[in-house]
Amino acid sequence: MSRDQRVQDNWAFLYAQRLALKQQLPLHVCFCLVPKFLEATIRHFSFMLKGLQEVAKGAERQNESVESWSLQIEQRGAAVAPRSALEKVGDWGGTQAGAYDWAKTTLKLHAQDKRSHLYELKQLEEGKTHDPLWNAAQLQMVHEGKMHGFLRMYWAKKILEWTRSPEEALKFAIYLNDRYELDGRDPNGYVGCMWSICGIHDQGWAERAVFGKIRYMNYAGCKRKFDVGQFERRYDPRKLGQ
């Protein structure tokens, strides 16, 4: 229930239900509610608790009982994604441990390349860069808790381009994603950041400054994909009171 907070299409739940029926035993759904989890905010907890209420209603319709336990646990520095495809990603704390050797090599080779712009975490968090598209994507995430998948790739790659090192870029991207995305702290989010910054599940591309052989994305490419101007106007910081 921690991974898939739903009754329908929850394969672990359905398997447990099958075992309970086979053994003629009651089935209890337990969720351990902790006071703090990574960068989750009150918005995330509110969203989750409302979802768990729906889970309870769904379980009651199937004559299951739901228990919520409040526990104090030791905080740890890494989140482990229980999927075989993510096993090599390892520590999410801003390292390249899960990257392929070619990606580690190319990022190290270009780590000292001159950046056209450098931003601190606070500037990125507040959407105060020179790039209006990046700012709009960041502000949408802050205000609405979401970002389109295509833009999330562009967003993370620009963090690599505008920070002092790949390690710092990954650390910033994971922090912002976990803190503001409603689906933050999820294996897909971690791998999305790793794909954009460290080339995980990708291949090498033409070598260039800062990125090395990591796939590059730019503003012009985004303009060919969708109406960038309309998106920037919709999330103009002046409209949002930034």
From TrEMBL:
Q: Which UniProt keywords apply?
A: Chromophore, DNA damage, DNA repair, DNA-binding, FAD, Flavoprotein, Lyase
- The Photolyase/cryptochrome alpha/beta domain extends over 1-139
Cofactors named for this entry = FAD
Could you mention a single GO BP entry for this protein?
Answer: photoreactive repair
A GO MF label: deoxyribodipyrimidine photo-lyase activity
Q: Which reaction does it catalyse?
A: cyclobutadipyrimidine (in DNA) = 2 pyrimidine residues (in DNA)
Task: State the EC number(s).
Answer: 4.1.99.3
Keyword Translocase annotated = no
Q: Answer yes or no on keyword DNA-binding.
A: yes
Q: Name one Pfam family in it.
A: DNA_photolyase
In terms of superkingdom, the source organism counts as: Eukaryota
Q: Known InterPro entries for this protein? A: Crypto/Photolyase_FAD-like_sf, Crypto/Photolyase_N_sf, DNA_photolyase_2_CS, DNA_photolyase_N, Photolyase_Class-2, Rossmann-like_a/b/a_fold
What family name appears in the similarity comment?
Belongs to the DNA photolyase class-2 family.
Name of this chain's protein: Deoxyribodipyrimidine photo-lyase
**Which organism is this protein's natural source?**
Chelonia mydas
